[in-house]
Amino acid sequence: MNPRDIQTRLSEMRDAAVLMEIDNLVWDRQNTPAEKMEWESREKYLQSCPPGNQIVAVIGEEIGGYIGFKPPTPLPSNAHVLELNIAIHPAYQRQGIGRVLMDALVQLAAERGVRKLSLRVLASNPGAVAFYESCGFVEQGRLVEEFWLDGQYVDDIFMWRKV
Predict the structure, then answer these.
(1) CA neighbours within 13 Å on the CB side: how many for 24?
(2) What's the mean pLDDT in 149-159?
(3) Which of UniProt's keywords are assigned here (predicted)?
(4) Could you tell me which of 31, 29, 34 has the C-alpha nearest to residue 150?
(5) For 79-106, how does the pLDDT look when each residue is reduced to its tens digit (9 = 90+)?
(6) How far is CA 81 from CA 6, 19, 71, 109, in A?
(7) So what's the pLDDT on residue 41?
(8) What is the pLDDT of residues 3-60, one digit of tens each?
């Protein structure tokens, strides 16, 4: 897929059902310590992920993925940081959508005066770690053996990059 075929925009109310479905398809024990990401209701989803707090990738008429962002705390002294999470629909993975979304977030963050992007990733997800490193993220810390997943202890890696 040509990256020019991927459009990005801020999420809207009408995107909630599709974004909930992407969460359901993407998040599992390989990439999150939660059992599965299933939302109780559309209302709960919208409370946690309000419109405008994700950038969505649109291919034709379909949403192929999103990158969510929010300040890590409500403290004004922490407002220069955005914490992110990213999910790409399985049908669109490894086609450049993640890179397009990351570039769009870096641009939006710069426009908003954000100085730092941060994220957490499981050490058991080396593909994600490699992707983040290719986007300029570096490890800033690690919670060793933080989670017990599928019979093994897994480190929780904190990564960051400057905007």
Answers:
(1) 12
(2) 95
(3) Acyltransferase, Transferase
(4) 29
(5) 999 999 999 999 999 999 999 999 999 9
(6) 26, 24, 6, 9
(7) 87
(8) 778 999 999 999 999 999 999 999 887 788 876 677 888 999 999 999 999 999 999 9
Residues 6+ apart with CB under 8 A from 107: none
What one-letter code names the amino acid at 76? P
The Cα 126–Cα 140 span in angstroms is 16
Contact 109, 18 (CB under 8 A): no
* Interstrand relation of 152-162 and 138-149 (parallel, antiparallel or unpaired): antiparallel
Q: What is d(CA 150, CA 31) in angstroms, rounded to the nearest whole number?
A: 12
Sign of the CA dihedral 33, 120, 48, 12? negative
Is this model's pTM higher than 0.85 or not? yes
149 forms beta bridges with: 152
- The residue behind tokens 């300029």 is 136
Q: Do 116 and 163 contact (CB within 8 A), yes or no?
A: yes
pLDDT tens column, 124-153: 999 999 999 999 999 999 999 999 998 999
CA separation for the pair 57, 163 (Å, rounded): 20
List Cβ neighbours of 109 (8 Å cut-off, separation of 6 or more): 69, 82, 117, 163
